[in-house]
Design a protein that fits this description.
The structure holds two protein chains of two kinds. Helix content of chain A is 67%, strand content 1%. Chain A is mostly helical. Chain A has a domain of 208 residues. The longest helix of chain A has 27 residues. Chain B is mainly alpha-helical. Helices cover 71% and strands 3% of the residues of chain B. Classes of the chains: A mainly alpha, B mainly alpha. Chain A: InterPro entries: ABC_transp_permease, LivM-like. Chain A: GO terms for molecular function: branched-chain amino acid transmembrane transporter activity. Chain A: It is found in: Cell membrane.
């Protein structure tokens, strides 16, 4: 009987009707996407160094993965370096010691990142807000210390001379330009995947949790399950980004699992704009470019990054893309 | 009776003492974090940098101005606490109406700036700070030699923690503070200047961190990274203890220091990670922390 009565006041929410947008990209976003894709296609021929571009794309993907959590579920993970760095180590080890082809090494890095994210996420989602940030930071420090001691990471030396190998056993990737196309493909797939996740019914629930978690619970969603799945997806993509980076540079070191790397990805996303589609990519581009030009300034880079943090939080909370979007009155 | 479980006693007690000293710093720093968090709802990521500033301030006072350890013990908390007050007034106070996470990001950024500036100025290698002559030497306790300074750190830190607890739990000022933690609007309605109290509380928390830095200066080498390495462990300590109780964070701090020391004796490979592992276990068994009240 209970199943037949519909209590008054309960509205059945219809499935979101397609508004004519393609894959959830609105019209301005489609324009921005095309601009980005054209840039990716033209950049290596326009005098930009492919290795620099690849670094930028790896960090762009890393920031997109991080943004999936902070921007759409409202979870601030302060330990994403653990998944990024571990993905790099695993891919490096697989490619160098086990002779695994690059596409599998990258997938393996992502899988290990996701597995680590599943365990850590399961622990960390027991607490919220500031505690969540502190727990994820402490867990990533645990990974850091394990990496210092574990034999396969090579300790202070890291894993060096990782071969890029042959894609599908056929295409040699040792030339920077061929590697660039692989990295660009990985980036675009990851970027579209994040967008697809955010605009899926699952993504709607994620956003509902961000806006009002008790309400999402009262509507019958197991919010912890959604948070955990979002965490796993984010950690897996971070692992893919780290794995790709280690293949590009042929090296996986402790720098990538250190807490300062977790801080950097937060900064990139914050600079670009939390919860925007293109913000993390722009933020990563800005920060990586800045690091490149200021490399000889040593510790001043840290000072400048800290200063940008402070400026963003105090005066510029929407980030670059968020501000542009607000100016043009569109969501980018 | 020179051994216990096959471990020489001097080694065991030596590591226990080191553990107690680390525990003293964990206790003082997590106490400061808890006090600040209670009233400001901000987790002070700059805490590690402020601890490091305390150690450097003691070093500068000694080497540039000839001010000795004992005066540094009084002057440094005042100076660094004052910088904290300026920081709160200028920046942190602007964020109280926003999501708490912005406070975390802001203080993290400030910490980066401070650490970077000190690294430019002093390099990454440590500077030595001599143990004051009154506290140098060691006592022969029969079963081990106890350096006087190390004993002093443990006793002094315990006294500071106890004093903080007394102020918060037993004085009128502390009563106001606890009331403002529960309900700032109501306390303000009774005519107490809550914003000023918030500012002074932040200053006091920072002063505690700086005092810890002065105590640490003769033990660890004074270097720009000394704070950031410590603060992440302190975060784990805070998660384990929960920030609800002052005494709780002190007990957790000392207790975890001792456990870490014992791990160094029995299973040295795990000594860097044991606190994080304990954190995981506590989160699984008691998500609110050992002394925490709310999740």
């Amino acid at each position: 009987m209970a199943s037949e009565t519909t209590a008054p006041g309960i509205r059945v929410i219809p499935a979101p009707v397609s508004d004519g947008s393609l894959w959830g990209f609105s019209r301005p976003q489609r324009v921005a996407l095309i601009v980005m894709l054209v840039f990716l296609g033209v950049a290596p021929f326009a005098g930009l160094y492919p290795v620099f571009l690849m670094k930028l794309l790896c960090f762009g993907l890393f920031a997109c993965a991080f943004n999936l959590l902070i921007g759409y579920v409202g979870l601030l993970s302060f330990g994403h370096a653990a998944y990024f760095g571990m993905g790099g180590y695993i891919a490096g080890h697989a490619a160098k010691v086990m002779g695994v082809p690059p596409e599998l090494a990258i997938l393996l890095g992502g899988a290990v990142g996701a597995a680590l994210g599943a365990v850590f996420g399961w622990v960390a989602i027991r607490r919220q807000g500031i505690y969540f940030a502190m727990i994820t930071l402490a867990l990533s420090q645990l990974v850091y210390f394990v990496c210092v001691q574990a034999p396969f990471t090579g300790g202070e030396d890291g894993i060096q001379a990782i071969p890029r190998g042959k894609l599908f056993g056929m295409f040699d990737l040792s030339a920077d330009l061929s590697m660039y196309w692989v990295v660009a493909a990985v980036f675009v797939i990851g970027f579209l995947l994040v967008h697809r996740i955010v605009h899926s019914p699952f993504g709607m629930v994620m956003k509902a949790i961000k806006e009002n978690e008790p309400r999402a619970t009262s509507l019958g969603y197991r919010t912890d399950d959604y948070k955990l799945l979002a965490f796993i997806l984010s950690a897996g993509l971070a692992g893919v980004a780290g794995a790709t980076k280690s293949l590009v540079f042929g090296i996986a070191t402790l720098t990538d699992v250190h807490w300062s790397m977790s801080g950097e990805v937060v900064l990139m996303t914050l600079v670009g704009g939390l919860g925007t589609v293109f913000g993390p990519v722009i933020g990563a581009a800005v920060i990586v470019t800045m690091q490149n030009y200021l490399a000889e300034w040593g510790a001043w880079v840290t000072v400048i990054q800290g200063g940008i943090f402070v400026a963003c939080v105090l005066a510029f909370r929407r980030g670059i893309v968020g501000e542009i979007g607000a100016l043009l009155k569109v969501k980018l | 009776m020179d051994e216990l479980f096959g471990i020489p006693l001097p080694l065991l007690f030596g590591q226990l003492l080191l553990g107690l000293i680390n525990g003293a710093f964990y206790a003082m720093l997590s106490l400061g974090l808890a006090v600040i968090f209670g009233l400001l709802n901000v987790i002070n990521f700059t805490h590690g940098a402020q601890f490091m500033m305390g150690a450097f301030a003691a070093w500068m006072l000694l080497n540039w101005f000839g001010v000795n350890y004992w005066f540094a013990l009084i002057l440094v908390p005042i100076i660094i606490g004052a910088t904290g007050i300026v920081l709160e007034k200028l920046m942190i106070s602007r964020l109280y109406k926003l999501d708490h996470l912005y406070g975390l990001l802001l203080t993290f950024g400030i910490g980066l700036v401070i650490e970077g500036v000190f690294r430019n100025e002093f390099g990454s290698s440590g500077l030595p700070y001599r143990i004051p002559p009154e506290l140098s030497g060691a006592w022969d306790l029969g079963f081990m030699f106890m350096p006087v300074y190390r004993g002093w750190v443990v006793v002094f830190a315990a006294a500071v923690c106890l004093a903080t607890w007394l102020v918060i739990e037993k004085t009128r000022l502390g009563a106001n503070l606890r009331a403002a933690t529960e309900n700032p609007a109501l306390v303000q309605a009774f005519g107490i200047n809550v914003p000023r109290m918030v500012t002074l509380t932040y200053g006091a928390g920072v002063a505690l961190a700086a005092l810890g830095g002065v105590l640490a200066a003769p033990i660890y080498s004074v270097n720009p990274q000394m704070g950031s390495n410590l603060i992440i462990v302190v975060f784990a300590v805070v998660v384990i203890g929960g920030m609800g109780s002052i005494l709780g964070s002190v007990i957790t701090g000392f207790g975890l220091g001792i456990i870490e020391g014992l791990t160094k004796v029995f299973y040295p490979e795990a000594s860097a990670t044991v606190i994080f592992v304990i954190m995981i276990i506590v989160l699984l068994a008691r998500p609110a922390g050992l002394f925490g009240r709310t999740a």
